[in-house]
Amino acid sequence: MKLLRRTILALTATSLAVPLALAQPAPKLKVGLMLPYTGTYAALGNAIENGFRLYVAEQGGKLGGRELEYFKVDDESSPPKATDNVNKLIKRDQVDVLIGTVHSGVAMAMAKAAKDSGTLLIVPNAGAGAITGAMCAPNIFRSSFTMWQSAYAMGDVAAKKGHKTAVTITWKYAAGEESVGGFKEAFEKAGGKVVKQLTLPFPNEEFQALLTEIAATKPDAVYTFFAGAGAVKFVKDYAASGLKKSIPLYGAGFLTDGTLEAQGAAAEGLSTTLHYADNLETKRDRDFRLAYAKSYKLQPDVYAVQGYDAAQMLGIGLNAVKGDVSKKAEFAAALEKARIDSPRGTFTISKSHNPVQDIYLRQVTGKENTFAGVATKALADPGRGCKM
Ligand code: BEZ
Predict the structure, then answer these.
(1) Which parts of 241-282 fold into alpha helices (H)?
(2) Atom of ligand 1 nearest to the CA of 126
(3) pLDDT of residue 6
(4) Which of 36, 204, 266, 274 could make an S-S bridge to 239, C-beta 3.0–4.6 Å?
C-alpha cells in the first residue's frame, strides 16, 4: 500500500512538473524607446510611440510570442546627451531592442552604441545616410527613410516644373545638410542651379534675416527641410513675409506632416515629397487611419506610420527567431526578404537595411497632404559606404 502511495505521488509530481515547466511564459521582451518627448520634435516622438503601440495592440500585446515591457528615455533631440541616454537603456535597463530616434545627430550616437554592444536597433525616423551607410550593421534597421530619398525626388520635380535656380534653407545638422544635398544632386543633374545654401543652427526659429536674403536673391524656387514646431514657424513666416506669393516653396514632406492644423492657411497649396500622404485610399491605410484615430483621437502622420512599421518589422524578425533576439543572423535574414505591408504601401528592406519605397508628390489642400502622384517609384538609397 505504502509503495503504491509513493508511486502515485511520484507519478503525480512528474506529470505536474512537465506541464508546469512548459507553461512558464517567455520573459517579457524589453523594449527601449528613446525618443524626443520635449522640444521642437516632441510631437514626432509621441506619434512614433503611438504607432508602435498600436501595432503591438493589434497583435494582442505580443510580438514573436513575447509580451513587451517598455523602458522610456526622453532624448530631448540633444546630441551631447545622446550617449549617456542610450546607455541608460543598454547598460542600466538591459533592453533587448532599442527603438529610436527622430533627430539624426542623436540617432548616430545610438547607432554607434548599438553597433558596439550588439543591441538590436530599429530607427523609426532619423534620416542621416550614415546609419544605413558607413555605420551600417547586421543589427541596425530603419523603418523610415534616408534624407536623400525624399529630397532627391523633389529635386527632380522642381526641375521638371521648369525652375532654373533655387535657394535652400535648413537647420545646420546632418538631416538638413543631407536633405539639401539630395535636392541639389537631382536639381543640378536636370540642369538647375542651387545659387545659395542658407542655414541656421538647430532648433533656432529666427528666420527673418534669411527670408530677407531670399527676397534679395530672387531665385525661381526655394527648397527647405524643417520639421515639427520649426516647420510650423517657418511656413507661417514664409507666408507672412509675402514670399509665398512670388517664390514657390518646396520641401521634403516633413515641412507639412503633422503640422497642418497649426500652419493653417499659410501651408495651403505647398508641394512636398514624402513616402506617405493623407489620402492613399488603400484598404490597408484606411484601416490604419481609422484604428489610430479611434485609439488616440488624433489623425496619424508619417511619424505614426514609421512607429507602426518599426513594431511590424520587429514582429517579422521575432517570428522568424521564435522570440529569441540573440539569433541575429536569422532575424536579419527574415527582414531582408520581407515585403512589409505598410499603410504607406508595401516596401522592402535594402541590403544596408533601409526601406526601398515609393516617394509621393503631395499638395496641401486644407488639413491634408493630398496625394498628387508617385514622384519616384521604389526608390532605394544608394547606402554609400555600407560594408556588411
Ligand atoms: C532627422 O533629424 O533626421 C529628422 C528629424 C525630423 C524629421 C525628419 C528627419
Answers:
(1) 243-246, 260-263
(2) 3
(3) 45
(4) 266
Nearest CA to ligand 1 atom 3: 126
Q: Could you give the dihedral angle defined by the CA atoms of residues 271, 342, 173 and 183, in that order, rounded to the nearest 10 degrees?
A: -40
Q: Where are the alpha helices (DSSP H) in 59-136?
A: 79-87, 104-117
How far is ligand 1, taken at its centre, from the CA of residue 90, in Å?
A: 23
Helix (H) or strand (E) holding 51: helix 42-58
Alpha carbon of 132 to ligand 1 centroid (Å): 15
pLDDT value, residue 157:
96
To test the ligand 1 pocket, which listed residue (104, 171, 354) has its Cβ within 8 A of the most ligand atoms? 104
Question: Ligand 1 centroid to 230 CA: how many Å?
Answer: 11
Which pLDDT does position 231 carry in this prediction? 98
Domains and CATH numbers, the chain: 29-145+281-353 (3.40.50.2300), 148-274 (3.40.50.2300)
pLDDT band at 4 (very low <50, low <70, confident <90, very high): very low
pLDDT tens across 164-174, in order?
A: 999 999 999 99
Ligand 1 center from residue 234 Cα (angstroms): 15
CA atoms within a 13 Å half-sphere pointing along the CA-CB vector of 379: 24
pLDDT at 24 exceeding the cut of 80: no
Beta strands in the chain (DSSP E): 29-35, 62-63, 66-74, 97-99, 120-123, 140-142, 165-171, 193-200, 221-225, 249-252, 271-274, 339-342, 345-349, 355-365, 368-379
pTM of the full structure: 0.94
